[in-house]
Amino acid sequence: MDVVKLNRRAVSVSADIVAAFGDDALAAPTPCAQWDVRRLLAHMTAQHNGFAAAARGAGSDDAVWAEEPLDDPRDAYGASAQRVLAAFDEPGVLDRMFVLPEIRRDSGFPGRMAIAFHLLDYLVHGWDVGAAVGAPPAFDDELVAAGLEVTRRFVPDGPARSLPGAAFAPPVPPVAGWSDQERLLALLGRSPSWPN
After folding, report:
1. From CA 83, how far away is CA 110, in angstroms rounded?
2. pLDDT recorded at residue 159
3. Residue 22, C-beta contacts closer than 8 angstroms, at least 6 positions apart
4. How far is it, in rounded angstroms, from Cα 35 to Cα 16?
5. Helices H, strands E: what count in the chain?
6. Phi and psi dihedrals of 29, rounded to 5?
7. Distance between CA 175 and CA 193 in Å, rounded?
8. d(Cα 163, Cα 161) in Å, to the nearest integer?
């Protein structure tokens, strides 16, 4: 799996969605409980900034992960997407250790694994923001397969996913005939038919 290339595609899908909607959509609800689009973009922007810093050895600084109110969430998101993609394109990034304090503070993760986490996050959050503004993306088969692989390898199941602040909600029971993308979303606690 070329995780850098796949991550770039996932982030680009989300950036295209964000660039296409107007400010009136910022107050729309999202599949992320209690977050509107503005709040989701603040989270997504902060995560891009944090991962970019982690790629360059500064992930242990809590300030780089801080979510802040954004005057122009769409522009801020676009800039942060370019920032993280540039960081992940640097030579040797897959061999670096990323400190990701929201997951584990005492040690880092190999670059390949950390970028796989980012890829999964932007598949699901790309879908979240698209669904919220009425433009849910259809990811290509390679991206969906990568998302399923990362989910199976690294996303635990169990009662911890019901706790406040859990990265993913409990899985949604599957429905016969669902596509692989729908199964991926369900594994990550999203109803593919949201908001229904």
Report:
1. 20
2. 84
3. none
4. 20
5. 6, 2
6. -70, 160
7. 11
8. 6
